[in-house]
Specification:
Blueprint: H1 6-28, E1 36-37, E2 48-49, H2 53-59, H3 69-137
Antiparallel strand pairs: 1-2
Length: 138
């Protein structure tokens, strides 16, 4: 069975990691409360302490087998809210990016226009100097 859901894949990875950690701790003599495993990147910001099953409920850690319908719904709701927040942030960043690109294009156009006006101004100054010379000769 190959789960296509990213959530299910993350839960399976966590389960395999905890089973691997238990095997390693049994082999090395450490208890599971002394080892740390990193949770899903969606879950929390840092690593969690894995403790005995009686402390898991009080510490907030729920493995895939222990997660009930309510917890699963809360987890999915949390993920959906994070997804919405990220999409909203992307939307606002795109708007800012488009506004900055428009300003950059306008700045380039103004620079080109400024260069043209400077050239026209220089040409007019030369023409005025020629007229002044012509008026003085006359």
């Amino acid at each position: 069975m190959n789960p296509s859901s990213e959530l299910l894949q993350d839960l399976l990875r966590e389960k395999k990691a905890s089973q691997h950690a238990r095997r390693m701790s049994q082999q090395s003599g450490y208890t599971t409360s002394e080892r740390q495993i990193q949770s899903s990147p969606i879950g929390s910001q840092g690593p969690r302490q894995v403790s005995s099953s009686s402390n898991r409920r009080t510490s907030g850690y729920t493995g895939p087998k222990e997660m009930g319908v309510r917890e699963m719904e809360e987890y999915i709701s949390k993920i959906n809210k994070q997804n919405f927040d990220l999409k909203l942030e992307i939307f606002h960043r795109r708007q800012r990016s488009e506004a900055l690109e428009a300003k950059a294009e306008k700045a380039v156009e103004l620079q080109i226009q400024n260069d043209e006006l400077r050239q026209i101004n220089d040409d007019l100054l030369l023409e005025l100097e020629k007229r002044d010379v012509a008026v003085e000769e006359a």
